[in-house]
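Notes, Module 5: Reading structure tokens.

Key idea: the token line is not a picture. It is a compressed description, and you learn to read it the same way you learned to read a sequence, by spotting repeated patterns. We will look at two proteins. The first is printed below with its tokens.
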Amino acid sequence: MSQDIRVTVWNEFRHERNDEEIGKTYPDGIHGAIAEGLNAIDGITARTATLDEPEHGLTEEVLANTDVLTWWGHMAHREVDEAIVDRVQKRVWEGMGLIVLHSGHHSKVFKGLMGSPANLHWREAGERERLWVVNPGHPIAKGLPAYFELEYEEMYGEPFTVPEPLETVFVSWFQGGEVFRSGLTYRRGAGNIFYFRPGHETYPTYHDANVGQVLRNAVNWAYQGDRHAHLMKAPNTPVAEAIEAIEERGAKLSAADHAGEVKS
């Protein structure tokens, strides 16, 4: 690899500033803890962006220089500007990787890319979560044991109203008895997407070594290297450039009609 994978770690950064106990758990914010873990290994360079920065920290320039974006959100999904949502989704279609974390399942970005409400059952009781590696050969599971446990977590339970994933990497069991598909992969356009369930803000989940391993693995899996901006275009192929010789016949629409343009 000629250069490090460029990661932007996005976070609302509201809970940590509004709640003293959460601030003690994540003094540099959830984004700070995630970025620190990613920057601890060779081959990844992580920067951070937060909701209250101009353009939510996700300017055209920032996203153009982002290979993989991680997204954590919870209490302020509605405050994310639609223009930024469109910008992020476009970059995913072009090939930017996206890792959606915990309550980011209800973000505008994730629901838009899934085309679904992404609803689920939940309970906040500080119960034990056991994550089973159900796809041990997957790159995101590299270096992990057969299962690992988080002593305190929020419960998410099925049904999870998302499209059928390409792959399921983790399935969680909770102390109260529920199960949940906790690690799912998708592809939208040229972009790889990974949803990872753990990460409730009141618990030290992002300080856990196994969680850190998952995130590092996921960044490497989601990374594709080159951009695929050509996929955002719908060019016309003239008759003369057809692979096999053809004769033009029958009525046809104008180029503007095909492009969805409105005639004056």
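Here is the second protein, with the sequence above and the tokens below, as before.
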Amino acid sequence: MRNARGARGSLFFGADRCFKRRESGSRFGMLLAVRNFVRIRMLFPLALLTLVLLGAVMVSSSRTPASAQQPSTGSPTPVAAGASQAATPGAAVSVSSAQLQQAGLNIVVLDPAHGGTDPGARGSGGIRESDIVLDLAAQVRRALEAQGFQVVQTRQGNENPSFDDRSATANAQRGAVFVTLHISSTGLPGTVRVYVNSDLPTVTDSDGLIPWDRAQAPFLGLSRKFGDLIQGMLVQRFKGSPAVAQTAGVRQLRTTAAPAIAVEISSVAVQDRAEIDRMAPGVADAIARGVAAFKPSYVIPAGPGARP
């Protein structure tokens, strides 16, 4: 029995040791599992965060900027009046109110006639037209600027630009009228006359452009209206002056592509220049008020050869 017990006991002891080994192995495995689980728990948020950041970077880099996906919503590129339609030479072209506003009258080109080696008309008392009109231009300029207009002069001193240079100064402006100032050698002293160019048939070349020496042709109607307005202002101040503008072949007007007039005071025949100088403020005021009255009627041709 003892042996049996011993064997039995030895058997159980061996089993017990085996169990203990298994138990201790299991515990060790459990400890490893727990430790690994803890490591995984600790590493998982870092991995998850890394994946999230990586995904965000990939999504961000794959997106196209909004400015490249959508067309610009800025203002359209302005189009010059009449540029969207072909103008038939000599044909009337309708101009919209938006175009009229864009091409509004803002500039007056003043041309003191003669100058330099060309004194213009000369009186027996030593009066020189070129000197008087330069002083007159200064008064007209002040009156126009008081009305809100910008003034450009073809000459500032005693120089003598060519006719073409004077016209080119006016033709380079947009939204302008041209006024050339003269003192006559004849006529009733104390009176003032406004001239517009004589009729000029509108002629265009093969490219639809108007020849330089007929640049005034499309503007003759407006020039007459402009001249009549100023002549009407002048006759109110200077009795004996005409009621409407006269026509003449004035060289400065023929090559000017804008409403254009000549204003001529009579005359250098007076013995005392002071008689003419006293007229200057009234002439300047009449011109400035006439330009302001003409402004609502101002338009430009919509294309080469078209009439305003």
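Summary for the second protein:
- The chain has two domains: 1-57, 97-297.
- The CA atoms of residues 90 and 118 lie 37 Å apart.
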